[in-house]
Amino acid sequence: MRVYHSDVLCMGAGLAGERVAVEAAQAGFSVICLSIVPPRRSHSSAAQGGMQAALGNSIMGEGDCPEIHFNDTVKGSDWGCDQEVARLFANTAPIAMREMAWMGVPWNRVVPGEHTYFKGGKPFQAMEKKENEGLIHSRAFGGTAKWRTCYTSDGTGHAVLFTLDNRMLQLGVEVHDRMQAEILIHNGERCMGCVARDLRNGELVGYFAKATLIATGGFGRIYRATTNAVICDGGGQITALETGVVPLGNMEAVQFHPTGTVPTDILVTEGCRGDGGTLLDVNQYRFMPDYEPEKGELASRDVVSRRMTEHMRKGLGVKSPYGEHLWLDIRHLGEKHITTNLREVYDICMHFLGVNPIHQLIPVRPTQHYSMGGVRTDKDGAAYGLRGLFSAGEAACWDMHGFNRLGGNSLAETIVAGRIVGEKVVEFLKGGVSDFSSQALDDAAAQVQGRIGALRRGRGEDCYTLRNAMQDVMMEHVGIFRNGKDLQTGVDKLQDILARCKTMRASHGGGELSMALRVPGMVKLALCVAYGALQRVESRGAHAREDYPERNDKDWLVRTLATWKEGATLPTLNYEKVTPFFILPPGDRGYGSGKIIPGKLEDGDIVSFAQQV
Amino acid sequence: MGRNLKFEIFRYNPLTPDIQPCMRTYRLEEHPSMTLFIALNMIRERQDASLQFDFCCRAGICGSCGMVINGRPGLACHTQTCDLPNHIALHPLPVFKLLGDLCVDTGVWFRNMGTKIESWIHTAKAFEPSVPEERMDNALANHIFELDRCIECGCCVGACGTARMREDFIGATAINRLARFHIDPRDNRSPADFYDIIGDDTGIFGCMGLLACDNVCPKNLPLQDQLGIMRRMVTIESVRGIIPAFIRNKLQGCGCKQKC
How many other C-beta atoms are found inside a 10 Å radius of the C-beta of residue A468? Predict the structure, then answer.
């Protein structure tokens, strides 16, 4: 077996993985990045809209500051986030954006003078200041008090990823692409790297590292209708879960995006609504202001997605061969705006839907979009349970998003957390000595070898049948609106699918085997989502229980921690305090109009934004 | 009932060299809004699990799925079957190393290219966390992004006559990348530096001007313009010391008086 040694091993080379890699490489440490695809093809590249940071250069962002950004983030999370982490994030975001400008990102800049902007579909005039000319501009995104989203046209993820990857080339960071991490090497206390499968030839490869980072993105592919790329199968979270000691946090917190297109589920950016796009029903009536008079289409994503579902349930959706949907209308923004600021949106509509958004309505429906949950880490990005294991980005539950993340906050998180966690990884490397156990490597490799052998000998169903069955259960029973009965049925069905995975067959070595190796782990992730959702008898953010519509701060102001014991058929759930202290005590979000069962806070629980604890 | 589509797909696995390359036929009923992404997955899931191809974002953004579609390089994910005849022939992109069937190794090719042309901002300035960002004109930012939109799908390289003939040709994608750095004021490389990188037959002077690259680019990048601008720039640089500076300066750029 080929074995590589490095100081840092990044599993995943999207924005978060690369930002950590860059930080470690700048400090002189050796880094290897593993990636299923060439790094520039990572799903980060698909993020269109932007990154939130309180720079306050634009006229509509005037007076913005990290504290306002923090407040928006906590409200967005429905008080499910770690407020210490959210503060750290909001304070660091402006620096991280400027740093990316230095590295080469062509951020859009302030153009002084009068501009026509849109709010709720209505145009208005605003005067950008002369003294801010050429500084980083910002656009509107949902759930924010200020316009704070830094952007590069509508290819922000692409532009930032290419810039970071350029920096990787400059620093000479080693990248091994077409490499699928299968299992962590560990001894129950310390992580020593991973065993990966080379997708070029099927060989297993060992990677020893002093620090291992999971930055593999989300796990949207456990749902059938998802905006996520085909590689977003939760590979990193699966390796963590299968250690038996590393918990996954808040797996039941799954975000649905209001504007996935029909039928391909490709996302069109929230920037459409931020720039003034509206949602229409079968009668081409703009319905969102009826539900959300103040925020309209720009309430947070969980609220807009639920309102859309609610409206379709009233029979006001548009029927189509691919199921019901609603319309997104951006026609009034005009050809110039659509073909420049919303160019990717224009391309997607033309190429994948055969719709011209300058003249036609875009068919949309809420579609799985983002995993708030993931590998639970502390504020330094260190995973619970194993020393030397870190996680960042969507793969992690760092936890600044709680039960709902705001648009533009996750893309910003990749860079901000990458910067912070990268620094902590460097600290960790400077502080410690490591020894690697070849026995642990052999054990890990033997386990993967055993799985491959079992799939070769299997006589049961193929991986596609089992994956499709899991995806259907998730769509049907663990979707936008949830209830105890459906969730229980979902859990039962998923347990049955997990049992059927034991006899799964894979007769070919290529894509089929790669998928087959993933499916049992994906079913376990699905069970963490479904079982966590079943046990959480309240509604918070994206987790909406029809049978428990209140947000229950008395009993459920906690984070779910799911671990998987060897041979178990369900995760073991534990709970921890949601935040070490409150800067913004639980209250009303100002949108969504949910009922709240208040909890009790002690005097010492509340600190000011400026106060360090 | 949709049309009955006949797919002819190139098959060869370098790991089993004894099995000769061949074209294999698959049949599929067409559905509305069917793309090659949908079609190829249906074939793999229902007819032949050994078929190898690459998709990632399936939204025309990541550049994974470049292949030759009825003789023309393009992205499979944003090719709708309704725009193609009943008979669809698929080949892997040429030039790149074949990994199996429709998969080619664009990843390693583009990393080597990026390293060779030093695809990063060359600056002596260090990042200052406490200082506001350097200002930039928004039109220039848009112009840089316009060239930065390349998704490294490799279609332009697969369609390039020079690249087919000489392995070391860096391709329109690399020249476009350098054009992006050339207009970026944060990059302090001079024309002489760019000359060193692309001023020979492996670079801009290898281009025969066939311009298939510009034709097939799925992102409609202005490759023809960039090839012209960069060729002019390094050509003028090559006569430094022969032609006076004021004439050289006059000839620079694309003729629009801005720094292009």
Answer: 12
